[in-house]
Write a structure and sequence with these properties.
alpha+beta; Nuclear Transport Factor 2, Chain: A; five-stranded antiparallel beta sheet; 9 helices
């Protein structure tokens, strides 16, 4: 359950919400802590409404998380070598479908958050590094603490940090998606996997039947 929580927070606690107070994306450690605090507070405040209308959670992820996830980087990693042979239209379609799939995944797993206490890794000097791991520890009652690390990548053009991966219990979510969809791309082709993602997204966006 904790691992699901961590996955649902991937880029959630590590990303920023546009509706929040201004967040300094040039400081990855402070960025993680502020976004986690603000976003989880917002989710908790809307929990009752979300139980009545789950699409609110999807909207929350869309507006408060995805603008700060480098979904294009993630999508291109998953496409792998297929990127070279794909047309611009094929790359664009897969990237958008993968983005929608990420929203669905985050929204689905986000519901396991139940007010666990979170301890944040103290800030460290980044220096000239372009990628840093920022740690958070989830403390859940009598269970052993669970540490997760958000992999942050510096956009050299904008000077801002963005989340590209989450490492939970030694497992990289991005690597898992590369394995899951990358294999299908090699076997069936990029268009077929884009179609698969589109169908998954269509089902995910349908209202639940009461």
């Amino acid at each position: 359950m904790i691992k699901q929580l961590v996955q649902g927070l991937l880029l959630t606690a590590v990303l920023l919400a546009p509706a929040l107070a201004t967040i300094d994306q040039t400081e990855p450690y402070a960025m993680v802590e502020q976004v986690a605090t603000e976003l989880l507070t917002d989710y908790t405040a809307q929990r009752s409404a979300i139980e009545q209308d789950p699409t609110i959670l999807r909207q929350l992820v869309e507006t408060e998380l995805m603008p700060y996830v480098n979904h294009t980087y993630a999508a291109y990693k998953v496409m792998g070598k297929a990127v070279r042979k794909a047309t611009p239209a094929q790359r664009q379609r897969f990237t958008e479908q993968f983005r929608q799939y990420m929203i669905s995944t985050f929204a689905q797993t986000f519901t396991v958050y139940t007010d666990q206490r979170i301890s944040y890794e103290p800030a460290k000097a980044v220096g000239k590094r372009g990628i840093v791991n920022v740690g958070m520890t989830f403390i859940d009652g009598n269970r052993p603490p669970v540490e997760v690390k958000f992999k942050m990548r510096l956009n050299k053009k904008s000077g801002k940090w963005q989340a590209i991966d989450l490492i939970a219990e030694g497992a990289s979510i991005l690597a898992a998606k590369e394995s899951e969809f990358g294999g299908l791309i090699r076997q069936q082709g990029l268009d077929a996997v884009s179609d698969l993602l589109a169908e998954k997204n269509r089902i995910a966006m349908q209202p639940e039947q009461s």
